[in-house]
Here is the input.
Amino acid sequence: MVLDIGHISINIPVWVTMLFCSSLAFLTTAVIIPSIISVSRAKHLFDKPDQRKSHTSDIPTLGGVAVFMGMVLPLAFLNGSAFEHQLKFIFIGMLILFFVGIKDDLLVISPRTKLIAEIIAISIVAVLGDIRVTSFHGLMGVDLLPYSVSILFTIFVFIVIINGFNLIDGIDGLSAGIGIVSALSLGTWFLLIRDHSFAGFCFAVAGALMAFFRFNVFGKANKIFLGDTGSLILGLSISILIVRFLESSLTGTIVSREDFPAPTLAIALLIIPLMDTLRVFTLRVLVGKSPFKPDRFHTHHKFLLLGFSHLKTTLIIMAFNLGIVIFSVLLRDLGNIRMLFVIIPASLALTSIPGLFFRYRVRKFLIKLDLLGNMTWILPVTLTNLLVSHFSWIKYEKSSHLPNPVKKAGKNSNEDLDRLLRDAYLKKTENEKAVQTHQ
Here is the structure.
């Protein structure tokens, strides 16, 4: 593969190019992050803890700036006529989301403004860069898409993926970890089909995220968050790579064929962001809340309720995402539809398990309070917020044992009732232990 460095073109082995891209991205991100942390401390640019967040101290939230620089710097050295044309518009799209993310991290902007900015950035990439979904690969009997439908569907796909990464960025390392799994998986694919420019893109993304992961998860004095800047750019990058994967599987390559289930494999690569977004948005709508209002309904929050650390939660979810990818590859001969009927129900069920375990744990506590009468059995198999919000037979007159925030959360707020029940449960357990000790 040829690397362009100024006016000099160097022909080097592909594996050296991939190592160069990932190493340069890693080093760039790792060098920039300490400077960003210093500036954040000097200017008091922190993400402050509140009732819906998992951290308890002020943390700098501009890690996305370093990740952005780490991603784009190696891309300047990659070549290929088609890639160079698309790269111009990829950079423009990234810059738009970079500045929108910076503003949101520092000042906070409305979901509507953020959505408009996303649509503009995506449209530039899809229309001018011609990075778009052109076919359904025979899914539901649909192959080639009309141009206007192709653009609209591409915008929809990008918005779902971008906001999926934004939504799962709630605990240390999770968004970056899923991004690493996706980027390395896609990079392997592009190496197999000899699409070396996009393979280099993948390894640059993975390298930048690995450096950030180190500071975000293991950093003590130098801990930093990805912020909206990082999650938006990460979502856009993975969206571009996913669309390239879908399109590359249509061409005659050494690994593709007519019945290759590319759409389902793409879903498998992003199963955690997609399923968590679907589940959380559905729950928010069912309890009468805005689907875009932040809360603690996510799968990773349920792991924290069960006592898992951020690192253990992140590693478990990453392992689950990678397992679904491997499982889908093994099932590729089933075709798109049958694979979807296997992996989607399985993913929804598995991502619900942490919440179900938690509710079973506090069931005895709720039975003692007699909040649900003879219907307490339903608690471990339902969504707590939905149950409390919509079932009129809940005995609120007997809920005086619960703290006021619990009653408020159940009726008219976006607070996670599971979390408040956990706190009430632990407090009651501690009180009972204290009484036994004194006896």
